[in-house]
Amino acid sequence: MDKRIHIITGHYGSGKSEISVNMAMAMAQKGKKVIFADLDIINPYFRSNEARSMLEEKGVNVITTQYANSNVDIPALTGDLSRYLPDATTCLVIDVGGDDAGSRVIGRYRDEIPLQDTNLYFVVNCFRPETNSMDGTMKILDEVRSASRLSVNFLINNANLLDSTTMKDILTGRDFILEASRATGIPIAFHAIMKGIQESNEIQLNEPILWMEKTMGFTNL
Amino acid sequence: MGQKLLMKGNEAIAEAAIRAGCLHYFGYPITPQTEIAHYMAKKLPKVGGVFLQAESEVAAINMVYGAGSTGTRVMTSSSSPGISLKQEGLSYLAGSEVPAVVVNIVRGGPGLGGIQPAQSDYFQATKGGGHGDYKQIVLAPSSVQELYELTVEAFNLADRYRIVVMVMGDGILGQMMEVVEFRDKEPIERPDAPWATTGHGCERSQNVITSIHLSPAVLEKMNLSRLEKYKQIEEKECRYELFNDEDAEFFIVAYGTVARIAKSVIETARQEGLNVGLIRPVTLWPFPRKAIDKVMGTAKAFLTVEMSAGQMLEDVMLSVCGRKPVYFHGRMGGMVPAKEDILQKLREMKEQLG
């Protein structure tokens, strides 16, 4: 996470937004000036904009698509991003919508993104229907790459079955992401693991871990 | 049980349909259920099926009518305004007794309304949104696992009774993600369909699927035979869940998403000395009147909670039939009932009734 700009992509429902929010909070905690950009035009229901107050408490500035969370189903992009992309004093975490359709949005900013300062991540949850096979994962990875017109620098393992996720599931995800990494030559950034997961003290992994807090979803249920 | 996957409600519905042998999907996108169409578009061609995005909801339901007439498993899905557009087709399907599965992931109305969750299509679904004396089975799941299981069941029920089965969820259920555990083999029942228009091959008389019967005597006779079928369904297919019903004094009646909220209210209420149970209708039609009768011994009053102005409320009142007071709490327009508000309502009931 040594670069200034972090773009998080992934398949639909991979956990991108939750991971983006947690990455932004982790960076802010290290005293960096962080801007969080929610560019998810795919899903009007669950978006990281929900986590706005949590981010702002930690000193993260949030910019979103226009009309986000207003119930107006219009996927209009914000111009704010163009202001921060060249700004060397800020760190940017950009949460992009799922699949190729979501990633196409970031392609629109391609010429403004300083590539040497940027990492692009691809999140994989091997328990989602589209990415529970290597073929499926490779297909979406390729689609995201061509739609965003950028290359993927890192993979993120987000093996996740919500509250029922166990140590065994994380290790299944680890094996899966290692295989994906070998097949593509793309290194692994980290394993995203929810805080408080059972047997979390026993987790021994060679790659870094991002310990996650839950920031989104319906808390009423 | 077999494979576990993390799925959105809408994805689980689509996957369930494919597992149930649904080979045809016709629909038109609308939030908050578009993932169903998206999933079908990706997966159906891989299993030899047909996905078609129709030019409108009206076209889609008539494609369902056509495909269903051949006895193949077919589904369409939409959300409230789109389901309104399909009403004419649903009446035709009922009049022709063609089986089909229709999914409604309800959003706030009336009109174009909003895109947030609601339960305000209850009347339309259970009392017949289209014209004529007809019924459709309405299933109301309340988790992603149940969306999967009840969608499979919807196809079985549709074929068993040659009837339209509606799976009715709301924006939360469609959009939320939960773990689904899939069965290794689905319990699929496919009765013979000697009525289907599959080509007579000069070996039998023609099958005709139609809902037009110009002779009043014939039309009444057909209506009467359907009523007989509806009566059978009412006797055999009522489903419900009772929760904390042993000796509860107050009963929340709620379905779908709201039933989940009710369950967490019940936990908190117990700590305050309020003994509350839950009646969760799983079939909205036929409405499980028996569940109400069952708890009448201990129940002092009922509280219907809905994301509507009070629609299921009328069926609860008809079932209670004046034996006990019935209260109501509802939110509309995409607002979701809050635990604290439901609890407050229960406290007031306790105060009034002692």
State the main characteristics.
heterodimer; A: 221 residues; alpha/beta; Rossmann fold; 8 strands; 20% strand; B: 354 residues; 2 domains; 13 helices; 14 strands; 41% helix; globular
Give a quick summary of the entry:
Chain A has about 220 residues and is an alpha/beta fold.
Kindly describe this structure:
The complex is a heterodimer of chains A (221) and B (354). Chain A has 221 residues and is an alpha/beta fold. Chain A has one domain: P-loop containing nucleotide triphosphate hydrolases (Rossmann fold, 3-Layer(aba) Sandwich). Chain A has six helices and eight strands; from the N terminus they run βαβαβαβαβαβαββ. In chain B, α12 (312-320) links the parallel β13 (301-306) and β14 (326-330). Helices cover 41% and strands 19% of the residues of chain B. Chain B has helices at residues 9-19, 34-43, 57-69, 80-85, 87-96, 122-126, 144-161, 171-175, 216-236, 256-271, 289-295, 312-320, 339-353; strands spanning 4-8, 24-27, 50-53, 74-78, 100-106, 137-139, 164-170, 177-181, 240-243, 250-253, 276-281, 283-285, 301-306, 326-330. Chain B folds into two domains: 4-236, Thiamin diphosphate (ThDP)-binding fold, Pyr/PP domains (Rossmann fold, 3-Layer(aba) Sandwich), CATH 3.40.50; 241-353, Rossmann fold. In chain B, α1 packs across α2 (34-43). At the A-B interface, loops of A face β1, α8, β8 and α10 of B.
Largest sheet of chain A: 8 strands, parallel
Task: Decide which structural class fits the backbone of chain B.
Answer: alpha/beta
Helical region count of chain B? 13
CATH class placement of chain A: Alpha Beta
Known CATH architecture of chain A: 3-Layer(aba) Sandwich
**Count of extended strands of chain B:** 14
Provide mean pLDDT of chain B, rounded: 97
Alpha plus pi helix count of chain A = 6
**What structural category characterises the helix and strand content of chain A?**
alpha/beta
Q: Roughly how many Å apart are the termini of chain B?
A: 47 Å
Evaluate the radius of gyration of chain A.
Answer: 16 Å
Q: Which percent range fits the helix content of chain B?
A: 40-55%
What's the multimeric state?
heterodimer
Q: What topology, given as strand order, has the largest sheet of chain B?
A: 3-2-4-5-7-6-12
The CATH architecture name of the largest domain in chain B reads: 3-Layer(aba) Sandwich
- Overall tally of structural domains of chain B: 2
- Rg from Cα of chain B: 21 Å
Tell me the number of structural domains of chain A: 1
Spatial strand sequence of the major β-sheet of chain A: 3-2-4-1-5-6-7-8
